[in-house]
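**Backbone description:**
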Amino acid sequence: MMKLAGKTGLVTGGGSGIGRGICLKFAKEGANVVIADINMAGAEETLRLIKALGGAAICIRADVTSTVDTENMVAAAVEEFGRIDILVNNAGTDIKGAVEEYPVEKWDLLMSLNLKGVFLSTQAAVKRMKAQQYGRIVNISSMAGKTGESFTSAYCTTKFGVIGFTQSVALEVGESNITINAVCPGAVETDLIKSSVTGTAQLNNRTYEEELYEKFIKQTPLGRVAQPSDIANAVAFLASDEASFITGSSLNVSGGREMH
């Protein structure tokens, strides 16, 4: 039986990486999918892949740092499919750097995209979810939202913030039959992790392969990095009615790299 049959799920940053994996999983589980991304080429490729599976989906250009765009993407979901049942706040980025040299404009970018974007998207979705007395929100945090990492101060700040936001909103919206949880991935094989590992490798005077092994694989009990599907499986569970009594939680999907 499909976990999300008849539900409508909106995924920010659905045009690539973890976001694309979540969109495909939702489609396989019977959901209507709204792919929101600033990268329309990527969003359209995700749409094509869903259509190839026989799924129902639309894509919309959305900058999650814009109040207008986040309101519009939720409105588009409701207009196309009649409601919004699930929001996945996945859009985000990481830029490495030593704290004493970190450019303030990069700090501001991460605060806006990784944290403000979660707030604005949630705000827009909760208005609709409260009216229908049902909703599932899943925020993509990180193991870096539980334990600090060197050269990662901005990213860690945002991902710690996502967990705090998740817990706070859970207390507000539970009476409206809305759950909100976070998923905390470890290293996932995406373009973002390749960029991130490349950045810290340079700072640590290592090759990419050395950095990936030392920082992630060596310290992961399961001995590998995750695939987007590993994260998508956890998100689909939290978005389903099987998880109807779970809220305010932060689930590690890190192969044991993070256990806190």
In short: The mean pLDDT is 96. The two ends are 33 Å apart (CA to CA). The domain at 8-187+227-253 is CATH 3.40.50.720 (Rossmann fold). The chain has one domain: 8-187+227-253.
